[in-house]
Specification:
The chain is of the alpha/beta class. The protein has a single domain, classed as 3-Layer(aba) Sandwich (Rossmann fold), CATH 3.40.50.1820. About 40% of the residues lie in helices and about 15% in strands.
């Protein structure tokens, strides 16, 4: 394992590299309230065949913690991701695996113009494209089919509290950060032993990460954009995910040229509770994409 620092303007990102240096580069992106350590159970399943790169997002772990809410906008986080890609694999596109807000920011990146030149594939876990989600909700309501949007709205009710400055901070700092494995085990109906150990920065990461919700949810859900991608996408659908409901991905084929759906009988924190299954699905997809690329590349 080696570490480095990648800069994007004033933001310094803590980056960890490990695995097979001769393998395809697989970049792992965590969400709230995690750090790169989210992937500790996934990495050993992939390290023999892939070069693994993971990093702490801005506001988490050992990376820079910006103060302003506006500094957590998705376009800036996508800029961080591209800075890491340019630093670790400037000449060869990388494969992405993102979870929760890490998946949301990966969606932002793969829908950028020219993304397919820098990103070879994307495996999305428990984090939607907010523009796609908002467009789907509007279509469902126009069609007078509100049950799907209502199901997701109930699952996302906690985000209303997260967008209220100051309100959730004491609960996060003084209760949830101290009982996080037990809470996630209860929430996901999984073994709490699979969740820990947690990062020493967890309480701070929880609070700083609230700015992700405040900077992005309302502005994206109020005014969704047309966001398409030609990057091959694998959608891991956690069938027991109580935070991101599978029904919200109903329209994803509209936006993704090359889409594969992979059901997983897991809750929200599948990188911890179902690491082997998630790693196997990711490896299969990456190998398929690599094989297709090789078949299209003319021999010299």
């Amino acid at each position: 394992m080696t570490t480095r620092t990648v800069t994007n303007g004033p933001v310094r990102l803590h980056v960890v590299e490990e695995g097979n240096p001769a393998g395809p580069t697989l970049l792992l992106v965590h969400g709230w309230p995690d750090t790169h350590a989210l992937w500790d159970r996934v990495v050993p399943e992939l390290a023999r065949d892939f070069r693994i790169v993971r990093f702490d997002n801005r506001g988490a772990g050992a990376s820079t913690v910006p103060r302003d809410v506006a500094d957590y906008r998705l376009e800036l986080l996508a800029g961080d991701l591209f800075a890491v890609i340019d630093a670790v694999s400037p000449d060869v596109p990388v494969h992405l695996l993102g979870h929760d807000w890490g998946a949301v920011l990966c969606w932002e990146a793969v829908c950028e113009p020219g993304a397919a030149e820098r990103i070879a594939s994307y495996t999305s876990v428990s984090g939607p494209n907010l523009d796609h989600l908002a467009s789907w909700m509007r279509r469902r309501l126009r069609d007078r089919r509100p049950l799907g949007p209502l199901e997701q709205a109930v699952a996302s009710a906690y985000t209303v509290l997260f967008q209220t400055p100051g309100l959730p901070v004491p609960a996060l700092r003084w209760w949830f950060s101290r009982h996080w494995p037990a809470f996630v085990g209860f929430f996901d109906r999984s073994d709490p032993a699979l969740i820990g150990p947690v990062a020493p920065t967890l309480a701070d990461d929880m609070v700083h990460g609230l700015k992700l919700y405040r900077a992005n949810l309302r502005r994206r859900l109020r005014a969704p954009r047309e966001r398409h991608t030609d990057v091959p996408v694998q959608l891991i659908q956690g069938l027991r995910d109580r935070a991101v409901r599978p029904v919200g991905y109903e329209d994803t084929e509209k936006w993704v040229t090359d889409l594969r759906r992979e059901p997983l009988d897991a809750g929200h924190w599948s990188p911890r509770s179902h690491a082997g299954e998630l790693a196997a699905a990711t490896a299969r997809f990456v190998r398929d994409v690599e094989a297709r690329h090789t078949a299209r590349t003319p021999a010299l």
